[in-house]
Amino acid sequence: MMPGLDDCYSIERLRQRARARLPRPIFDFFDGGAEDERTLRENAEAFAEVRLAPRVLRDVARVDLSGSLLGRPAGMPLAIGPTGAVGFGRRGGDVMLARAAAAAGIPYALSTSATAAIEEIADKAPGRLWFQAYILQDKERLHDLVARAGAAGYEALVITVDLPVGGKRERDLAHGLAFPMKIGPRNFFQFARKPAWSLDMLLRRPPVMPSLAGLNRMASDRKAMRSVAGRNYDPAFDLAALARLRDRWPGKLIVKGVVHGGDVEAIVRLGADALVVSNHGGRQLDGGIATLWALPEVVAAAAGRVPVLLDGGVRRGSDIYKALALGAAGVLTGRATLYGVLAGGEAGAAKALAILRDELARTMQLCGTPALDAIGPDVLRVPSPFPPLSSYSPCLPRAAAAWAASVQAEMLEEN
């Protein structure tokens, strides 16, 4: 029997609990990245490179984490981002995540590849709901999904633009993982070692992805060295197609997967309401830039016209703080809350959010910033040497550029 969550005092502890509960192929599906997983690692390592120089003698007896996301109140500067196939790791996990988000007063984004229907989430977990639409080749299906999200009251449509084709996810290939799921000689013993999970899937049958049901080519093709992601998606989707989708959707439009400042202007002009700096959690292009390093360039290009969010590598409340200090309006969690629900269901998802909230509040107190709008780049420091400074200082926001220049000057004086 699994112990309770009392000893899960960090996101990493929830990750370890999830790993202990799940068969290795299933855990690796959620935990892994593309190819050598450099971008997966560097998303987290980028946060570790940035240090904080706290201000002292400030009244931080109380700190206020509340703010707004997309013009509406949020309990903290965070939304639960879209994660696919959650039900394979925890049956009913999509609903559990949505309920945890609603209880915390933050948005929840439902993935196209979720194991819950659009209407089920709206019925069982009413709150601030966003629908993440993958760009399907079957445009009739795509337009139907978008229309259903609008009818169900979803406030925002999240268009993921970094998935023209699926990344090469080698952990999945090594396990022979496919959807619909097949258990064969290569992975039989991995599943047999976790009888509770395996018996549930055997007796109750694996869940389905209702938004993708009936589409062709859902299974992975190991000979072609492709993962299960990216099937049925349209690699020809471009700005003109995004503009047509914007015309169909009356609510807020969030474009997720932007890491280059040169892409921002056109996306903002066609009517996007927010951007997400994202590299798909390191699951697409391996060797791509870490999202924290890409953030200042995108913030500068957006020039305050739309809020810029960030995902990828967020495992601590201090990571949220650092993203806000570099100009993010908030962050999306993927694996952090996913580990929570995989480890302990709805209680585990709530635990993950509570951990991040507590750590963010503690970081704000320790850095002398009692409110979100007091967080800025003046408290950020980096070790010497720091190669990204020379690359990114021209495109940082004004305050961050001044910080970068001062740090570079200090480094020259020391040398």
TrEMBL record:
InterPro entries: Aldolase_TIM, Alpha-hydoxy_acid_DH_FMN, FMN-dep_DH, FMN_HAD, FMN_hydac_DH_AS. GO terms for molecular function: FMN binding; L-lactate dehydrogenase (NAD+) activity. Residues 3-385 form the FMN hydroxy acid dehydrogenase domain. Its cofactor is FMN. Keywords: Flavoprotein, FMN, Oxidoreductase. Glyoxylate binds at Q132, Y134, R169, H280, R283. GO terms for cellular component: plasma membrane. GO terms for biological process: aerobic respiration. The active site is at H280 (proton acceptor). CDD domains: alpha_hydroxyacid_oxid_FMN. Pfam families: FMN_dh. FMN binds at P82, T83, G84, S111, T160, K256, S278, D311, G312, G313, V314, R315, G334, R335. Belongs to the FMN-dependent alpha-hydroxy acid dehydrogenase family. This is Alpha-hydroxy-acid oxidizing enzyme. It comes from Bordetella genomosp. 10.
